[in-house]
Amino acid sequence: MSPDSGDRGDPADSGLQLDRYLPYRLSVASNAVSGLIARAYEDRFGLSIPQWRLICVLAEDGGLTQVQIVARTVMDKVTVSRAAQVLVKRRLVDRAQNTADGRSHVLALTPEGRGLHAEIAPLALAYEAALIAGLAPDEVKLLKRLLARLQSAAGQLAGDAPDG
To answer: How far apart are CA 152 and CA 156, in angstroms?
Structure first.
């Protein structure tokens, strides 16, 4: 059954149908996109998705603590810590004592990490372009707005403080 096929007013359609259940559709779409990109990053660069996200955040924001990375990426602490350990070991990320708080460390890209980011970023943008090629620019803008609203609603339902 296609996701749109249940819009006929059938009494049987009043219950939960997985293919029409938005959280399921979002999860399946996310897994498909992440899996595609993960294979490319792993095969070509030896990076997992969390490692790539960490590199991107550090490229965009500069040096950050792991707590800041967790907040920015919405990845859990263990995932961020493991990704950071691998990237430090590969000399793509430096780990230095946080001068503002001696209990934490600041992670920053090394020159090698910046070079890898510069090499991968065009590939990431090409994947994005291929994924949205069938959408009009207005549809892409709408999709991004709707995803942000869904993320915000999920955060509110979970009791998270609103971004701002």
So the answer is: 6
Residue of 90, 75, 83 lying closest to 52 (CA atoms): 83
48-156, CATH topology level: Arc Repressor Mutant, subunit A (1.10.10)
DSSP, collapsed to helix, strand or coil, labels residue 109 as: strand
Per residue in 27-77, pLDDT tens?
999 999 988 888 888 999 999 999 999 999 999 999 999 999 999 998 999
Say if residues 105 and 64 touch (Cβ distance below 8 Å). Answer: no
Reported residue count of the chain is 164
Give bridge partners of residue 94 from the DSSP assignment: 108
Q: Are 95 and 105 in contact (CB under 8 A)?
A: yes
CA nearest to 93, candidates 75, 120, 67, 111:
111
Dihedral sign of CA atoms 116, 117, 123, 124 in order: positive
> Where do the domains of the chain lie?
48-156
**Got the DSSP string for 28-71?**
HHHHHHHHHHHHHHHHHH---HHHHHHHHHHHHH-SEEHHHHHH
Question: What is the reported pTM?
Answer: 0.77
* Cα-trace Rg, the chain: 19
Residue with the two structure tokens 């792991």: 66
